[in-house]
Predict the structure.
Amino acid sequence: MPSKLQGRLPYILLVAVILVLDRWTKALVQARFGLNDSVTVIDGFFDITYVRNTGVAFGIFDLVSLPAKSILLSAFTALAQSWSPFTASEAQLVTAFCKWRWP
C-alpha cells in the first residue's frame, strides 16, 4: 500500500511547478515592463499589464515594523490552523505557502 505522500506527490509536484512558473513570469514582467505597461496576448481577450496591488490582501500591515508583522502574521496563522479542517502535516504545507514572501 503506497504511503499518503506517494499518493500526493503528483499534486505536490504540480504545485511546485506552478509556483516556479509564477515566480518566473513575475520576474520576467518586472524586468521587461514599466509600471502600467501592457501587452496584448490575445486581442480583445487577454492582456498582460504590470500593476502593483497594495490593497489589504497584498499590503496588509505595510506600516507595521517587521518584527511586529511577523508576530501578528504568525498569530493569525496559528489561529487559522486551530480552526482548520486540515491534518497537522497538511496545515504545515498550507502555512508554508501563506508565509511565502512575495515582492
Remarks:
- Residues 61-103 form one domain.
- The chain has a mean pLDDT of 75.
- Residues 33 and 60 are 25 Å apart (CA to CA).
- The chain has four helices and two strands.
